[in-house]
Design a protein that fits this description.
A four-stranded antiparallel β-sheet has the order 4-3-6-5, with no helix packed on it. It has a two-stranded antiparallel sheet with strand order 1-2. About 60% of the residues lie in helices and about 5% in strands. It has two domains: about 210 residues, Growth Hormone, Chain: A (Up-down Bundle), CATH 1.20.1250; about 170 residues, Growth Hormone, Chain: A (Up-down Bundle), CATH 1.20.1250.20. The longest helix is centred in the C-terminal third of the chain and has 32 residues. Helix 4 packs across helix 7, helix 13 packs parallel to helix 16 and helix 16 packs antiparallel against helix 17. It is built from 18 helices and six strands. By secondary structure, it is of the alpha+beta class. A hairpin with an 8-residue loop joins strand 5 and strand 6.
Amino acid sequence: MALLTHLLVCTFGLGSWVAINGLWVELPLLVTELPEGWYLPSYLTVVIQLANIGPLLVTLLHHFQPGCLLEVPIIFTVLGVGTVACTLFAFLWNVTSWVLDGHHSVAFMVLTFFLALVDCTSSVTFLPFMSRLPAHYLTTFFVGEGLSGLLPALVALVQGSGLTTCVNVTEPSDTTPSAQTTRSIVFPQASNSTFVPDLPGPAHSAVHLESRNLPARFSPLVFFLLLSFMMACCLVAFFLLQRQPRPRESSIEDLLTSQVTLHSIRPREGEDLGPPSPRGSGKAQEHPEEKTGPRHAASLICIYTLVAFINALTNGVLPSVQTYSCLSYGPIAYHLSATFSSMANPLACFLSMFLPQRSLPFLGVLTVLGTGFGAYNMAMAVMSPCPLMQGHWGGEVLIVASWVLFVGCLSYVKVMLGVILRDRSRSALLWCGAAVQLGSLLGAVLMFPLVNVFRLFSSADFCSLQCST
């Protein structure tokens, strides 16, 4: 019975962010099919941030009208909407509508908003529900939450989404290209036009390269149906969890008293979490949120600033320019960077469970390191369509590794900062969530005009680049 409960909890955690994570890893294929093209990631970033209205409303209702919201019906609604939205995505993802000056993916954006609303709201509904279960199931829930990024990335890797190749097209220089005089040869990883003087025909022939999309192993229809299946499994798992016999102890008591806790979230012996209450230790235990004293204000401000800064980079700034930083190196580099960086997030979370490090100086150094990788990614986006080492395999390796290390380093820091705040008080976690959403919003608001209004970044056709090396 315990094994079954662990499996159900893991599947339940899978539904937390699987839809949006799946959408991001499918972008290499979607940017080649939808009219927004390279601007699609920046649009998605803004739409996803707008969906934060969901957790905001839930939080405000919990604060001003305690008890007015029932967790179980809300979770059923959230999972039901997510399953339906993923199913609709499978059939409507490429439907466009004429808006103002051209065709736009209105259905895609609307469905993205609902998926983001589901995933954002899960942050303030799933964890409170987990307080009903014993503490050791919380670890399993976080494992499932990590799989919500890993499984879609693996599916996208198998799909081979968004891969293209360069086709060598030969045209006689003195005639109009025709079916009889034009030939196509697969010519991968080349970027220069050539002149071929010895081809048979009435005159010399010019050769140029054109991009051709390679067919994915299965279509976005199948991919989004797989996402809807994952959401449906999460819904079924939650339904079965409701039918499991209640544990003898409530999980709130268990979370406070159980010795079976994650090593990474267990307070250190003798760790100073704030001065004791002047009314005695009994009062301090009754009000754990009073543990943080004024002398910790500077460290708290530092932590909240780091949380906002990191989320601005990982959720707003860099995702908006990933296409610009990677596609100049070719579709394979973009595909691998999008997939592996999505896998780096849950892997960093797993690492933080076994190798926790709470030292703020260490986390600060790791933040600087991750920001350095992010700066390299941004620099390559600014230099598009001719970034450093374009056309060389070393450039492709560097950009993929830089994206993976950027996401991995900052994901580890985010987890450990959350662990530190969790040990301080519940209100500290509340403000941590506010800093997360604020940073994400600021990053998205900053990048949207730079990408879509001022158009500071230039797209590239990998096959027709003429960059000096």
